[in-house]
Write the structure tokens for this entry.
Amino acid sequence: MTVHSRAARSHGQKIGFVPTMGALHPGHMSLVDWVKEQCDLAVVSIFVNPIQFDRAEDLEAYPRTWDDDLAMCAQHGVDAVYAPTAQAMYPDGFQTTVSVKQLTKPMEGAHRPGHFDGVATVVLKLFNAVLPHVAAFGSKDYQQLKVVQRMARDLDLEVEVVGRPTVREPDGLALSSRNQHLSQREREQSLCLHRALNAARRMAQDGERDAARISEEARAIIAAEPGAKLEYLEIFDAEELTPLAKLDRPTVMALAAWVGSTRLIDNMVLN
Ligand code: AMP
């Protein structure tokens, strides 16, 4: 991969990169399409990164759809797919991790120990292999986007890390590789996440500035769906990810909930 990227760079080509764990869907492909517009070469990585999983059963059950993924990449004009093995990424004796200290404390970081160290470490290694000028990440994983942006800034990486909008089903469910695990009934139950986020945004748009009141309303919507179990719901400063009492600056609401044995996350900008 690196030989290929160095050659492209020496010919003045601009490399755009979309890191993924595969089981590709239109959310991933929206990042690919955007990168194709911005750059000369589009590279996708497909690597189910073992060190970012906090539960062994989640890693094992993670969907792997290699043939479909390659077909989708070909359809969208991807120039290279980088799919290293776990052994190549983490050979015997591997012992270094990258930690972004503050941004990883709340939300996903609080509930998935080690998750963001795994993400930051693999993203840095992937950047070193692919040598991209631009890398696209989905806002679906809002905290991850902010963590990667901070890592790039703090470690002086010469990669522009760009966040792109969340792609949703027509009924509002955010596309996710994990949606494959949902039964028809759970699929319907999972819509309460989007309902809660929408209600919160509507309240903010209508002038509500009290985060506790918005949070209460959103929590009530999740609680009204017996099939869903809320893990966290936070309203926070869009840049520093610190909790907010008043919506007096750019604000995001994010949540994680279990629907059956599937863990779903989603978020929305409130103002
Ligand atoms: P993953 O394969 O889940 O690690 O995701 C790879 C990239 O695709 C990450 O930057 C995600 O944020 C992004 N992504 C996943 N789902 C969506 C979606 N529904 N809309 C936009 N981007 C997404």
Summary: The longest strand covers residues 228-237. The radius of gyration is 19 Å. Residues 20-21, 27-28, 30-31, 137-138, 140-141, 166-167, 174-177 surround adenosine monophosphate (CB under 6 Å). The mean pLDDT is 98.
